[in-house]
Amino acid sequence: MSNLPMPGKNVFSSKYKIGRRELLRLGLGGFTSLGLPGLFNLRSLASNSRPSENSAIILVWLRGGCSHLDTFDPKPDAPSEYRGPFKQINTNVPGIHLTELLPGLAGIANKYTILRSIAHTGGGHPAGSLQMLSGDPDAQDKPGPRYPDWMSIANFLRSGGAKGIPNYVAVNPVDRYDSFTIAGSTYLGSGYDAFKILGDPSNPNFSIPNIGLRDDGQRKRLSERIGLRESLAQIMKSIDRSGDALAMDQFERQALDMFLSTKAQIAFDLSKEPQKLRERYGLNSWGQQCLMARRLVESGVEIVTTEFDGPLCGRVANWDDHAVNHHVFDALKYRAPFFDQAVTALIEDIYARGLDKRVLVAVGGEFGRTPRISHVASSGGGIASAAAGVVQPGRDHWPRAGSFLFAGGGINTGQIIGATDKKGEDPVSRKVSPEDFLATIYQHLGIDYKNITLKDFSGRPTPIIRSGEAIAELSKT
Question: Which residues lie below 8 Å from residue 114, measured CB to CB, with a gap of 6+?
Fold first, then answer.
């Protein structure tokens, strides 16, 4: 015979007294394994305000650093040891030129703006990434971030309310470079990190665990369990004067909403898209990552990042085109069609669906590449790399100048901001810092970057950026 009280008995009598901790265990046991309630609980600590609620951003991150001279900032008149083999082509906006590697983007230059003058001091991949993603001014590489990245900060400031889908999703996450961690929530807490989507979404067997329940029987059984749990929750609320139980009920409900509802399941399901549109993005990892990013912002996700790396980059699976890694020009020629197709389709789709006012697309990496071409022996053969020992051309790290593309977001498009010198070595006009870049993102998201501070590990108020102004030329107001 059970020792629990029979129906009608007073559960608060001394004979049947149940400790608050035990009651919480009874009420919540079996659901915490979903792993999401704690996340929602942490997010409740964020500001109650939700600035510019409809705005969203997609970051396309080129891990390793893209050569600006061979893509967005061609230098056809530079000496041969600088300019590379690719011809300059016109775009549909007079006066704007790209290299021949980007014919798709050349046809829609009226829908984006290129910044050609971003510069910083982080010469290593970790330092350069930390400067661009969190505004950390340190020029030295470090094993992990000191400050939270802008994605986690935006998630912290914009979280709240159950949407049945995460607010920050990373499709092939921007989080590591080899053994270094280049992004993270640091003192905000891991509850503000991304919901990470791993794997190749172009794979026919691709799926995301723990999103939705496809089986109606499973959904019914879990709903019945929720009904039992909510009966216990009423008791919890009666005895918990602090409101903790009510709060936990709210966070569990958010987790269960995501698990039970079909919204997240549909948002992540690329099979819902017409085959022709999937082909337009490219039936490869980068194309389908971009398509998923568009589906996510359309479904209400506000912060989406996607990293372009892996086999489509060439032998070493990134944009780090030292001569020891890749024949830089073969590598760019190999990956450019995948890149050009995916980003062009994303931008066109954002505009075609009327998302261009609220969704900002930003495309770039941690820095540019050395304007002067180096020649070093390859460390190994493979895609876009000669056999080991064969001398081939490369470009090395170059934080002194780089390019970024911006589209959508209600910005002024069809323009170039800034310029580098005739060799592409340094900005000669409108030099932009990483914190200017971050301020631009925060401004789009309606975040008061000049005044908001967050408490660090010691409890000290810390500004979300330490200097910087949003890039005024992008704004229509």
Answer: 72, 73, 96, 403, 404, 405, 406, 415, 416, 417
Return the residue matching tokens 């999937």: 278
Segment 112-140 mean pLDDT: 98
Which tokens is 128 given?
């350069």
Distances (CA, A) of 420 to 118, 294, 406, 432: 10, 32, 18, 11
Sequence-ordered list of residues with C-beta below 8 angstroms from that of 443, at least 6 positions apart, any chain: 449, 470, 475
Residues 397, 362: Cα–Cα separation, whole Å = 21
CA atoms of 464 and 450, how far apart (whole Å): 8
pTM of the model: 0.84
- The backbone torsions φ and ψ at residue 374, rounded to the nearest 5 degrees and listed phi first, read -100, 165
Amino acid in the structure at residue 56: A
- Count CB atoms within 10 A of the CB of residue 180: 18
Residue written as token pair 């390793």: 64
Q: CA-CA distance, 156 to 275, in Å (whole number)?
A: 36
Pairing between β-strand 419-420 and β-strand 397-398 as defined by DSSP bridges: unpaired
Nearest to 210 by CA among 249, 171, 265, 155: 265
Identify which of 223, 231, 226 has the alpha carbon closest to the alpha carbon of residue 252.
226
pLDDT digits (tens, 9 = 90+) for 187-241: 999 989 999 999 999 999 998 876 755 555 544 554 554 454 545 455 445 545 4
**What element of type H or E holds 126?**
helix 125-134
- Determine phi and psi for 58, rounding to 5 degrees: -120, 120
Q: 3-class SS at 41?
A: helix
d(CA 281, CA 337): 11
- Inter-residue long-range contacts of 287-290, CB under 8 Å, 24+ positions, other chains counted: 287/202, 287/338, 287/341, 287/342, 287/345, 288/200, 288/201, 288/202, 289/171, 289/172, 289/201, 289/342, 290/58, 290/60, 290/342, 290/343, 290/345, 290/346
